[in-house]
Each structure stands twice: as C-alpha cells, then as structure tokens.
Design brief:
Number of helices: 12
Order of helices and strands: HHHHHHHHHHHH
Helix content: over 70%
Number of strands: 0
Structural class: mainly alpha
Strand content: under 5%
Shape: globular
Largest sheet: none
Radius of gyration: 23 Å
Distance between the termini: 34 Å
Length: 277
Amino acid sequence: MRTSTSGRVGQYAALLAYLVFLAFPFLWLLSTAFKSPRELGSLHPTWIPRHPTLDNFRQAFDEQPLLRAAGNSLLAALAAAVIAVLIATPLAYVMARHRTRLAKAATGWVVVSQAFPLVLVIIPLFLVLKNLRLINSLTGLVMVYVVWALPFALWMLVGYVRAVPAELEEAAAVDGAGRLRTLVSVTAPLLAPGIVATALFAFITAWNEFFFALVLLKTADKQTLPVVLTHFIGAEGVADLGPLAAAAFLATLPSLVIFAIIQRRITGGMLTGAVKS
C-alpha cells in the first residue's frame, strides 16, 4: 500500500510539473500583453502587471492588419480541414476494412511521410505550384495544407474505423441494408466524433503553420496570421514586445478553444464506442 501510494503521489507530482511547464509560456505571454513599456523594460519583471493596459492591443491592430491576416488564416485552415477530412474518410474506411497489400503500403506511406522535414519538400512543392501559377495564392496554400494533413488524418481515422465493430455492418447487411445504407446509417454516425476530432486537428495545424505560408505567400494582402506576427520584429532583430505579445495572445486563443472542444469530442467518442460494444 505504501509503495502504491508513493507511486501515485509521484505520478501526480510529475503531472503537475508537466502542466506548469505547459502553462508557463501562455501565462507569461498573457502577463506581457498587459504590461506597459516601462514594466516591459524593468530589470525586475513581475508575473502580474502593476498597471495593466490595453495599449499593446490597440498598437498591435494599428501597426499590422491582424484582422485581414486572421481572415486569411481562417479561410485556409477551414478549407484545408474540410477537404482533408472529405478525402481521408473514405480512404480510411477502405484501409481499415480491406487489409490488402495496397492498404498496407498506404499505411506504410502514412507512417514514413511523417518523418519528412518541411525543408525537404518545400522546393518540389514550390516548383509544382509555380508551374500551376498558384504561388502567392491561398488556393495553392490550401492544397499544400491538405497534402500535409492527409497522412495524419488517415492515421487518426483508420483507428476510429477499426474501433467500430464490423459485426454491426454485418448485422445491417443481414437485415437487408445495402453497402451505402450501412455506411450512412450505421458506420457514419459512429465515426462522427473521430471525423470532428480529425478536422479540428487539421484546422489547428493549418492555423498555426508558418513555414509554408512564409515561402509561398509574397504580398501583404495574402499573408496569414503567423507570418504577420513576424512583422513586429524589426530589421535588427529587436521585437516590439508589447504589441507582439498582445497579437500572439489573440492568435493563440482559437487553438486553446478548439483543443477544449477536441477533448470533449474524443471523450464522447470513447464513451459511445464503449456503449455500442
């Protein structure tokens, strides 16, 4: 009993330390966003601003087109998430239900593709998009995001499809339901939590992506939010810390909200699967 109690205390302590490690950057960012320039230059920084101010937020919106950049990011992320899920869902079903050599090869490709660094693929992607005249285009950026999100979306959805008992589909077939009716009425509702979670992960990945947007988008009216945030850093590498923290805090909020939604969806999906089985 003592060993079990000590082990549990150690687990909780490690979890608490990990949560503090994760929360520290966001809390420091939040604190910096509300500090005055005088406090930001202080040699003795504090967690809580002595004189909170909204001037950093006003300055951030005055200096950079944050709303336009956020609109570009939202459009690209939504389009990429929807298209990736629409392509990945039927492919994942085939890969999970029909374990042929082709399906195994596709699964291997999904795993291997995650090891490719961005620098390795950016030049071929740039040349392809240049030939298609899609450089400096949100359409081209969405295409890149879809290709980049597909392996992870497939990997997630294959697991969700395999968690759905095949006996349910067999029972529907015995009752006279065709393949399409079975997929729509039986399988699709059980996959809904997984589809939502996959779409949200794809959205967050595209929303936070920086490297592809930096290389492929040239004009200011097409740039996404992560790229615009770099404009708060001067030519000599000196950052306008207050407005940068304010803009970065606003850019982080959608990811936090979506992660909260993902957590509820994944939990709901696990409970639904447990009840069905």
